[in-house]
């Protein structure tokens, strides 16, 4: 998720662009750039935070009143000045910034190379820039024709702002699936990825719909449909203040990111599954390489470790390979004995967690191939691992991970299904069924968010006073109870423990007393009666039982409050059971009046031991 901005008016563009970009840094911050038009178009880019760009141009007199800008969250091509936007077509006719993903950029490269286009970066955006240039030159019908032909030809998502060398007083924009807002006041016209970037200048905005384009002149905006016909739009007034706008109207980043999960899960699935087939080739993991592994190690910290516990059950059950999951800080000091024919999977949102990075290096030292399941493109673990499977969660601002966690689960399911299929442990029919079921998870996640948020918020308010909570389950339900417990602890400061349901009676059940909150996760049909009987044991000692279970399991015997989730394949329940647990933790914390986005003592990425 990147941030684009643009301005066309009577003021100096550079000041407005830099100010607007600073309001979008939370959307991505691995590089930034601007293009300012005076007589010519001048482009300035820098790696890292926006401050680096500001420093680079602080002594340069930029009088131009037309410009575009960008802050990047890398999806294609590592964070670097070369890959930073704006991108420029081969002969400088087209300059462009982009937020989104062009899914068919490889085939477009082949097309453009046939017409002698060359590329200086690893980005899909540079390809998009040259495709617009290609149509602009081929049909000579001007910007709107080139943009419309491009929108018909490319697949993916985009919000773009474009400057054409031959049209000095115009900025052209277009969008599909990526957000864009256009504002206007007496000083000119503004475009941005979302409201915070322009709210300081105007609250009068236009909304541009999918597959529409617009020409931003100094004092007017002209909208076009895909046929190139002009369409009328009304200026509307927005009510958000700037702070609320950064969270797109949500009260906190955590609840915003919880609600982004259907979208980012879908994006992650689509980046690995096309036409009902899994394609991991971009990671370098060929079928032969995947077939060669005889053992799997999964190493991570915190919530990423909990994904590993889930993945252990799924990978071992599907692939019949021995799988061992370890906490990175333990792994790195236990002098591990590793099988050189093994695969070490390091799961990390930030890709910078010190213990996980050290574990990766230990594996490499022992000659074990390493795979990173990473959210931040070009992070240390991503760069040092032999293979990388990226999650497309976008920047995660809240310290407590939610959407990154969910996309890591998705990548684990896809990897397990692919290895099982390649090793002939599942037949084609099962392979296709698993793929089909994975593709239902975004909608099922949305179903939970739409239908259960209110009731979970209500029950959460009843438990803001508690000092202890227990999460129990078996198999994958135990794995996700680890995550539910951590979510509650880290944001609400309520002590909680996750227990394998069968383990409670080996001591911990002595802590259960009247009204102790016990959350039972029950999804694994073959063993659900076992968990039910464990819940009967704690209920008979006074516990208050909340259950999270699919509609078709009868828990009426034990449950004081039932959270019913949609059914899915047994392997994929963690994606659905975790959502109510995230919501419960969020609302209990909010009802306690705590800072849910920045809990005490915590950091988003633990880059120290
Ligand atoms: C989870 O909500 C925490 N933010 C924390 O446990 C986190 O998962 C852990 O520090 C690992 O971080 P990483 O995924 O960036 O490696």
Instruction: Give the full name of the CATH homologous superfamily of the largest domain.
Output: Aminohydrolase, N-terminal nucleophile (Ntn) domain
How many H/I helical runs? 19
Mind telling me the CATH class of the largest domain? Answer: Alpha Beta
The third-level CATH topology of the largest domain is Glutamine Phosphoribosylpyrophosphate, subunit 1, domain 1
CATH architecture of the largest domain: 4-Layer Sandwich
Summarize model confidence as the mean pLDDT: 94
Task: Please mark out the parts with pLDDT under 50 across 5 or more consecutive residues, or reply none.
Answer: none
The shape is globular
How many strand units? 27
- Please outline the major beta sheet: 8 strands, antiparallel
Secondary-structure-based class equals: alpha/beta
Q: Give the spatial strand order of the biggest sheet.
A: 3-2-4-1-10-9-11-15
Explain what you see:
This protein has 3 domains: 3-238, Glutamine Phosphoribosylpyrophosphate, subunit 1, domain 1, CATH 3.60.20.10; 244-439, 3-Layer(aba) Sandwich (Rossmann fold); 452-599, Rossmann fold, CATH 3.40.50.10490. The radius of gyration is 26 Å and the shape is globular. The model has no long low-confidence stretch (mean pLDDT 94). The strands form 5 sheets. An 8-stranded antiparallel sheet has the order 3-2-4-1-10-9-11-15, covered by helices on one side. The chain has a 7-stranded antiparallel sheet with strand order 5-6-7-8-12-13-14. A 5-stranded parallel sheet has the order 19-18-20-21-22, with helices on both faces. It is built from 19 helices and 27 strands. With 609 residues, it is α/β, with parallel strands linked by helices. The two termini are 30 Å apart. Helix 10 (302-319) packs parallel to helix 14, helix 16 (441-462) packs parallel to helix 19 and helix 17 runs parallel beside helix 19 (573-591). 2-deoxy-2-amino glucitol-6-phosphate is lined by residues 301-304, 348-350, 353, 356, 399-401, 490, 605-606.
């Amino acid at each position: 998720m990147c941030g684009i901005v643009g301005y066309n008016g009577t003021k100096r563009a550079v000041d407005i662009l830099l100010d607007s970009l600073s309001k979008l840094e939370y959307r991505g911050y691995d590089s930034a750039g601007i293009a300012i038009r005076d007589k010519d178009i001048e482009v300035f880019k820098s790696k890292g935070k926006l401050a680096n760009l500001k420093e680079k141009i602080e002594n340069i007199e930029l009088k131009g009143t037309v410009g575009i800008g960008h802050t990047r969250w890398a999806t294609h091509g590592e964070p670097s000045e070369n890959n930073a936007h704006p991108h420029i077509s081969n002969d400088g006719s087209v300059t462009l910034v982009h937020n989104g993903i062009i899914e068919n950029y490889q085939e477009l490269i082949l097309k453009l190379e046939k017409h002698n286009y060359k590329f200086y970066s690893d980005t899909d955006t540079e390809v998009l820039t040259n495709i617009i240039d290609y149509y602009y030159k081929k049909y000579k019908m001007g910007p709107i024709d080139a943009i419309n032909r491009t929108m018909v030809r490319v697949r993916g998502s985009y919000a773009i702002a474009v400057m054409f060398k031959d049209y000095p007083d115009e900025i052209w924009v277009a969008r599909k699936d990526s957000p864009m807002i256009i504002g206007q006041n007496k000083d000119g016209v503004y475009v941005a990825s979302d409201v915070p970037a322009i709210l300081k200048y105007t609250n009068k905005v236009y909304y541009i719909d999918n597959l529409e384009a617009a020409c931003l002149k100094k004092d007017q905006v002209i909208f076009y449909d895909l046929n190139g016909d002009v369409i009328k739009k009304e200026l509307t007034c927005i009510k958000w203040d700037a702070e609320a706008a950064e969270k797109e109207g949500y009260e906190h980043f955590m609840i915003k990111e919880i609600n982004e999960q259907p979208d980012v899960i879908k994006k992650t699935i689509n980046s690995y599954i096309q036409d009902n087939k899994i394609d991991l080739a971009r990671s370098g993991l060929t079928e032969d390489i995947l077939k060669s592994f005889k053992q799997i190690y999964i190493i991570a910290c915190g919530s990423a470790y909990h994904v590993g516990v889930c993945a252990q059950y799924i990978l071992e059950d599907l692939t019949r390979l021995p799988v061992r999951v370890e906490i990175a800080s333990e792994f790195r000091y236990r002098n591990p004995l590793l099988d050189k024919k093994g695969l070490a999977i390091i799961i990390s949102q930030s890709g910078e967690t010190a213990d996980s990075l050290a574990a990766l290096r230990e594996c490499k030292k022992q000659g074990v191939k390493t795979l990173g399941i990473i959210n931040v493109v070009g992070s240390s673990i991503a760069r040092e691992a032999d293979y990388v499977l990226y999650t497309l969660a976008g920047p995660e601002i809240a310290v407590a991970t939610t959407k990154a966690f969910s996309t890591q689960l998705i990548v684990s399911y896809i990897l397990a299904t692919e290895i099982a299929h390649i090793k002939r442990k599942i037949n084609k029919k099962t392979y296709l069924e698993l793929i089909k079921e994975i593709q239902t998870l975004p909608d099922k996640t949305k179903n939970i968010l739409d239908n259960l948020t209110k009731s979970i918020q209500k029950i959460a308010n009843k438990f803001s006073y508690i000092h202890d909570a227990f999460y129990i389950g078996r198999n994958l339900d135990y794995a996700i109870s680890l995550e539910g417990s951590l979510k509650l602890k880290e944001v609400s400061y309520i002590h909680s423990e996750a227990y394998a349901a069968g383990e409670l009676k080996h001591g911990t059940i002595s802590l259960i007393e009247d009204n102790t909150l016990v959350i039972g996760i029950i999804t694994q049909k073959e063993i659900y009666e076992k968990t039910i009987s464990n819940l009967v044991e704690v209920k008979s000692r006074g516990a208050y039982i909340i259950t999270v279970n699919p509609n078709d399991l009868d828990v009426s015997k034990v449950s004081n409050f039932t959270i019913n989730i949609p059914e899915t394949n047994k392997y994929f329940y963690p994606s659905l059971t975790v959502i109510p647990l995230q919501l419960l933790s969020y609302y209990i914390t909010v009802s306690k009046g705590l800072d849910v986005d920045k809990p005490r003592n915590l950091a988003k990425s633990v880059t120290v031991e």
